[in-house]
Amino acid sequence: MPWYVFSGITALSESFMNVWSKKNLSHVNEYISAFSLKLFAMVFLLPVLYFISIPAINPLYWIALVADATIMTAALVLYMKALKHGDLSISIPMIAFTPLFLLITSPLIVGEFPHLIGLAGILLIVIGSYLLNIDKKKKGYLAPIKAIFTNRGTRYMLGVAFLYSFTAVIDKVGLQNSSPLFWAVTGNAATLIGLFVVVMITSKRQMPIIQQKWKALLPAGFFMAVLTLFHMIAVSMTLVAYAIAIKRTSILFTVLWGALLFKEKNFKERLIGAAIMLAGVLLITLF
User: Which of 90, 155, 172, 216 sees the fewest Cβ atoms within 10 Å?
Assistant: First the structure.
């Protein structure tokens, strides 16, 4: 299959993962949610090792693995905090800022230089983020911009977008020094260890809830496993920025699910804003 098919399935899976995670956060905290997400993803990822051969592992693999696990541990905790404290349709679109950050991190780490028509793309991302909060305009023209930084959900997700700009290119280093599927499984396992440490520090007494609520938590892990595998395959076939661009169409799916399933308000404005942000992503990465 072409790389964009893998990225498209990744996007749809990510939107479903967002929905299930948002739902789960009503009965577990963000630390348990992040840990269980990776834990149940491993249920589906581990069997993959049986069907693949262990690749030759270069020294850079280990550096990438530690770096990826460290950053992803922080990113997933922030991600769950964002979902907990903000609407899906206003927090998830902040992920569109990742390709903007990639303009800096991708050339520095893996030497990939997407075409920099980028200024127009950056402008569209800013305009789109403004429209997400256009309902705040009655408080002043700058109120929609201020809302990005005062809303806890969007503030946390901006942090995630920044961290993802590093993990996106670290993934490329990791799979180039092992193999896409091996990296997907071991990267998930390493992050799981990092999240286990976090849970032991913050939520040790709440660990039994994972066993009690496993049926509710399992679907999010399944979708995490699917998006992890398919994204790594896509990244191995094309530029990091290109794969991320298609993956970010999950923003539109998630805004739609937010309106349909969680009855979030201002659907039209947020969908238009998210679509404009996505157009900015495409300009930055694909042209």
Answer: 216
